[in-house]
Design a protein that fits this description.
Shape: globular
Strand content: under 5%
Radius of gyration: 19 Å
């Protein structure tokens, strides 16, 4: 009973914060401009501060487990490769194929996976996921652009300007910059003044609830669910099959404790919200993309609940 209560208490605040965002948008308490501005503000301040402190304040001398980083990166690249080789054989429409591949392999780590880990693990146990973000975010974004370019029906090859834009976006990404700064300052044993630590703490406290509320507010993409078969397939692969495969491989490779749960948290995370913006910009099927994002976000809540419950029952998560 205690494990059931722990799992419920871990997932329910996330579900409610997303629900609050959806309600305030539906009731027109906030407008689209506010949501867009709040998302940008959080992306440039709160979330970078959260990740910075997650790396800078972690206990221990070795924060980078390169075996685990290599495993998760290989999982990301491997899933993208398998999807690219198989999905186009079943879906001839390039727009739909690119939407399926893009949303299945690219998880919503920053807005949902990382905040969820913070709530479950506590900041003192988030090293496993914090060290992954500086690697997985660039890899995910660049691979996503490559996939969308290669399956763009209006273009037969990979566009160099799109790749340059993706790389430029990665280099200027405030979350990446915050992670690099945290690693450098930590490795250099550079102490931060108290006022700056308090400022970063205040911003990081804002990051998680604001990220989840804006996520819920953005879940307003209108569609008639005309792509039910595609949505059901993508959702099953994203939040059921992918975490099952990744966790099984992680166990086989000897990962345990918070690293094993981190592999689950990332692989079970729903499709990234920015998939929708990329789909619109790069001639993918944005309607199908929006439907998959909505479906995977809702289903992932239940997967997180049952996954955490299983880990607690197996004493993997303390």
């Amino acid at each position: 009973m205690s494990n059931l209560l722990f799992s419920f208490n871990a997932v329910m605040p996330v579900f409610l914060l997303v629900g609050i965002g959806w309600i305030v948008r539906r009731t027109h308490l906030v407008g689209e401009s506010f949501i867009d501005g709040a998302s940008k503000l959080n992306f440039r301040t709160g979330l970078p501060a959260l990740l910075f402190l997650g790396i800078y304040q972690v206990k221990g001398t070795h924060i980078f487990d390169w075996k685990f980083i290599a495993f998760m990166t290989a999982g990301c690249l491997g899933s993208a490769l398998i999807l690219c080789l198989t999905v186009p054989k079943f879906i001839r429409d390039k727009k739909k194929a690119s939407a399926m591949i893009h949303t299945i392999f690219k998880p919503n780590i920053i807005i949902l996976g990382y905040p969820m880990a913070m709530m479950i693990f506590g900041s003192e146990h988030c090293a496993a996921i914090s060290m992954l973000l500086p690697v997985l975010i660039p890899v995910n974004n660049i691979v996503a652009v490559l996939i969308l370019c290669s399956l763009d029906p209006e273009n037969q090859g990979v566009r160099s300007n799109s790749i340059r834009k993706a790389v430029n976006g990665v280099v200027k990404n405030p979350i990446i910059l915050a992670a690099v700064a945290a690693v450098l300052l930590r490795q250099g044993h550079v102490p931060l003044p108290t006022f700056l630590l308090k400022l970063l703490t205040s911003l990081s406290n804002l990051a998680t609830p604001l990220a989840l509320i804006t996520l819920g507010a953005q879940m307003t993409m209108k569609s008639a669910l005309s792509n039910r078969r595609y949505v059901a397939s993508a959702t099953a692969l994203k939040v059921f099959v992918t975490p099952l495969v990744m966790v099984s491989l992680a166990v086989a490779l000897g990962f345990r404790s918070y690293e094993l749960v981190t592999a689950f948290m990332i692989s079970a995370s729903p499709s990234a919200v920015n998939c929708y913006m990329l789909a619109r910009e790069m001639h993918s099927d944005e309607v199908l993309t929006g439907e998959i994002i909505l479906s995977t976000t809702l289903c992932s809540m239940f997967i997180f609940f049952f996954g955490i419950l299983i880990f607690k029952n197996l004493a993997i998560l303390s």
